[in-house]
Amino acid sequence: MSISFACSKGLRWCAFPKSLCLLTSLLLGLLVFCTDAFAHGVTAGDKGYIQEITGVHILPFIYLGAKHMVTGYDHLLFLFGVIFFLYKIKDIGIYVSLFAIGHSTTMILGVLTGISVSAYIIDAIIGLSVVYKALDNIGAFQRWFGFQPNTKIATLVFGFFHGFGLATKILEYEVSPDGLLSNLIAFNVGVELGQLTALGAILILMGYWRRTGSFVRHAYTANVAMMSAGFMLMGYQLTGFFIS
Q1: C-beta atoms surrounding 33 within 10 Å
Q2: 102, 164, 165, 198: which is deepest, by most CB within 10 A?
């Protein structure tokens, strides 16, 4: 049994197995609901380490930053959506750089200025960024509103929110002010290294997928599943905000 959807950006009506759609959505849903500990947070051991140390610790914070990005499923989902229809290395570099600039700016400024907003609200907005990118990829804005939002500006703005979400979490751990700026910069370097590592893996997998006929058949499915995961993340975080 199959379902048909109208696909955009050069894609036509394509059919895909209903079981594939349900399985993909289920896996992404479980990913969202079962890995909350990794969403802009750190493990219990890392949390204790951050709270106890003082002074400059460059390598440990680089490691923590890289670990955060590699295990940050919301970041990876957004990056996956950003590069989904990007084929040129130059274009990928521009969009990833915009995301990195936004992410780095608000992470550092948020911690240094002590500005804090509910982590639930920020993570819900991050879920919205995943939904937005999936809708953009399937051409929904052009069909619904007759115009295409500036994708570069959107990537930068959502990068701000991704970084602010991390800053909010870091503030909860009351990191020592001794060596704070150096440690934050090291952490950010680690985040970017982790991002490049994750991006490289995604691009390798995408490269293989794009060379097969299933990419055209299932590209729409993947974006619908990604959008579903974004909505699940939004609902989960908003529920946490109202009951906390």
Answers
A1: 13
A2: 165
How do residues 131-147 score in pLDDT, each as one tens digit? 999 999 999 998 898 88
d(CA 21, CA 5): 12
Q: How far is Cα 146 from Cα 28, in angstroms, rounded to an integer?
A: 30
Who has greater pLDDT, 8 or 85?
85
d(CA 228, CA 244): 24
Longest CA–CA span in the chain (Å) reads: 61
Cα–Cα distance between 84 and 139 in angstroms, integer? 13
Residue 114 has pLDDT above 50, yes or no: yes
Handedness of CA 98, 92, 155, 65 (dihedral sign): negative
Token look-up 């992404």 returns 28
Is the pLDDT score of 117 beyond 70? Answer: yes
Q: Is 240 helix (H, G, I), strand (E, B) or coil?
A: helix
Domains in the chain: boundaries: 24-243
Find tokens 């521009």 and name the residue: 94
Mean pLDDT of 61-75: 83
Tokens 């729409």, residue? 220
DSSP state of 37: G
